[in-house]
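TASK: fixed-backbone design
INPUT:
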């Protein structure tokens, strides 16, 4: 686990596009989904996001230094940091990479003075909802997704990042 750098962004973009296609293809209208499947557009969005103050990009690497997942968090979002994206490629799942990304995100936020964070899960992404609940996230509401008319996301919150971070191996 390490902080991401500019050279990681093409791989991060590839991971995001692959996961969006696999996860949301059946949940979202193709018109809504299509901008998220454009690798170049996603790469440019990531470049802009990572360049903003208060943005944290963590990448998960395997023993060969291949990036298998990432977490992107906006620390300046109100009322508390927002985990914008957490993606792990299917071939890296089941080995704790997603859990390590969550715990490492919590640790990085805690060191920077944050005690809590939130994220949204598109309604229907039940595997992600179960994952976040296993890690102690509390479902605090259902909100419309601003960029997808008619879509909703479940908002999860962690009120004690120390507890999540302390579970690091």
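OUTPUT:
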């Amino acid at each position: 686990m390490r902080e991401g750098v500019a050279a990681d962004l093409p791989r991060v973009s590839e991971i995001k596009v692959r996961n969006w296609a696999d996860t949301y293809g059946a949940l979202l209208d193709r018109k809504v989904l299509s901008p998220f499947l454009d690798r170049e557009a996603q790469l440019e969005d990531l470049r802009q996001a990572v360049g903003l103050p208060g943005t944290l990009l963590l990448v998960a690497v395997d023993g060969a230094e291949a990036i298998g997942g990432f977490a992107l968090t906006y620390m300046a979002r109100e009322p508390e940091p927002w985990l914008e994206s957490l993606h792990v490629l299917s071939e890296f799942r089941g080995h704790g990479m997603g859990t390590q990304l969550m715990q490492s995100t919590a640790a990085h936020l805690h060191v920077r003075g944050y005690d809590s964070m939130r994220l949204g899960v598109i309604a229907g992404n039940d595997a992600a909802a179960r994952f976040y609940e296993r890690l102690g996230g509390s479902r605090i509401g259902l909100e419309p997704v601003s960029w997808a008319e008619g879509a909703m996301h479940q908002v999860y919150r962690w009120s004690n990042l120390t507890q999540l971070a302390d579970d690091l191996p």
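COMMENT: The first helix runs from residue 9 to 24.
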